[in-house]
Amino acid sequence: MVDKASAVGFTVALLALAFTLVTGQIAYGNLYGPLHNDSKLPEVKVVQAYPYRLAGDVYLALNLSDVAGPDAYPASVVALSVYKYMSKKAPTFREEMNCGKIYKL
Amino acid sequence: MSQETTFSRSTLVGEVQTKLTPQAYLLPVRLVVGWDWLDAGLRKLVLAPDKVDPSSSSFVLNKFVSFLPHAGVFAPLLKYFLENPGTGGTFLLVYSVAELLVGGLLVLGLMTRLAGFGGAVMAAALAPAFWLGSTCEDEWQIGILLVAAGAVLALTSSGRTFGLDSLLYRRFGDRPISRLPGLRLLKFW
Asked: What is the DSSP string of A14-61?
């Protein structure tokens, strides 16, 4: 006959292990079957991009979309390089780039 | 002077001679897990209170947007909090206070077993975020370790050594939170 302390410890350990395995399977599939959510690189697509003139200035409107939602911590565009027609590099926006804004070139 | 008590115990592999594990060996777990919780509460409530302000861009529950994609069965709950930032803010405030409380109690070794149980439950409640991980299974690993550590602290009496529970135990002895079957295992200290 197993004593009470051993039985309690074993039961709690089983519960903790079950919690570990179930949540790991739900979150990552790391127990059985193919892994999902394997921290892949975020994939961002340019849904729409068009330049337009307004009051003598040229603007570039961009609509960027995360293809299947972030697969890691908030996936986002951290750098974007914009080139003019003559392959001359225009200013590079970093960090502050926001899909909801239109940046004047 | 250390005292090693040897006694006979029935186990899964039969009768064995074993020694009691000194409670003092649990101190690293108690202090680190306690500081982990305490830091989480201090960060939100004291060091950067904007984090619990629903009108602030630093509001922690804004991160629930990033929790959603793989939240599975937890998605409706997360959506509810996103659509009701006031309710979410109240939940966050209560959770942050609980973090402070659990962390403080564990560090002090005061009502350690109850605090350990509370910490395990709170860690389990973070399951909707378990899928998050920038390079590996970060949140899940943190969560399961806190659940397991909380269970150990709830079952053992680490506060009776290097903790204020030593005073309570000397004065009141063992005190389960309830006399109901099952709950008798859960004690205050």
From this structure: HHHHHHHHHHHHHHH--SSSS-----PPP-EEEEEEEEEEETTEEEEE
